[in-house]
Specification:
5-stranded antiparallel sheet, Chorismate_synth, 437 residues, alpha+beta, single chain
Length: 437
Amino acid sequence: MASSTLTSKSFLGSSRIDGASVSSDLRKLSISSVQISFCSRIPKKLQINAAGSTFGTNFRVTTFGESHGGGVGCIIDGCPPRIPLSEADMQFDLDRRRPGQSRITTPRKETDTCKISSGVSEGLTTGTPIHVFVPNTDQRGFDYSEMSVAYRPSHADATYDMKYGVRSVQGGGRSSARETIGRVAAGGVAKKILKLYAGTEILAYVSQVHKVVLPEGVVDHDTLTLDQMESNIVRCPDPEYAEKMIAAIDAVRVKGDSVGGVVTCIVRNAPRGLGSPVFDKLEAELAKAAMSLPATKGFEFGSGFPGTLLTGSEHNDEFYTDKHGRIRTRTNRSGGIQGGISNGEIINMRIAFKPTSTIGKKQHTVTRDKKETDLIARGRHDPCVVPRAVPMVEAMVALVLMDQLMAQYSQCYLFPINSELQEPLIMPRLEAANASV
């Protein structure tokens, strides 16, 4: 119990207030000591400040749940009202993310069927928080008995203990990729609104698995389609390289090992003007969003690291005016963003994912009581995370763009725009909202 003693004294030693004599009772009070006690209901060492599960400012998403708990999901706050929305708008991407899709993903069997329980009435968003829930149905907590005492190398087991002093052992709890279900569900909402509002398309694909690298220029970002990406189990739009990538995953999968890779993401028809100078640059927001995903280890934007090998004259994107009178760039090494603000060109980025930490090969580690030991991890895990990471990347990019679109409208389009320099944002056409997205 903490206590504090406050002693009141007469102001500057005076015993008069506004020329009047202070009563004897008041004078007694002015020199008395007042004992005030504060009692905390919860011992300090048991108080926990939970953080890190909410993303966004205007379009805010909070994810919840753990890998082997009752279920996972999200709460979406700030979604505009009167947008047609149903579970089907989220389920498509959830199906792309779910486990058990093929031999190169984890064999865990989950339908990942989502349920909206608030924020939607008669098929339209109400502007109030949207609650989305997906139950866990295929749990095997016993697979993690060894990992309850021994830390998996390069996994979050040890650092969660270091931070919280306690952790959910089964499946890694919040550190599991199962947490991303909430992100993908919310991303489905953001993608629909962006498509309705501005025709914005967000497409990601696998461009590298281990040492199999899709050459630059093989994929035409102007014509890339979802069907091309979904035409094979590794989600690479080029059939020849897709087969090479699948073979690379198969080679380590049968050995109980894993490999990493790279996901490339593009954005077509992004509104101009998204992002802010200095600390809130659009590429900085995208980098944070992408790097918040499990297993991420690197982020490249536009020309990325290879761009450092060019001179300024080689790297600069020269401007020109197209036949519609719009300012464009002849090249796009800037990746669709200059000065932290979108310029209307295709936004492109690449996200590197490490090999899956949990593998079936013997590894040296330590136990929670700091004794060295060997561990052969059990459980069901992806031999390569990148095929299932594709919809996760799309979702995080969509959440950033949705948040930035709302910020841009509220700051720069609340009053009449400078039509000589600014393009009007397309207002939502709700009468066309029932069109397939």
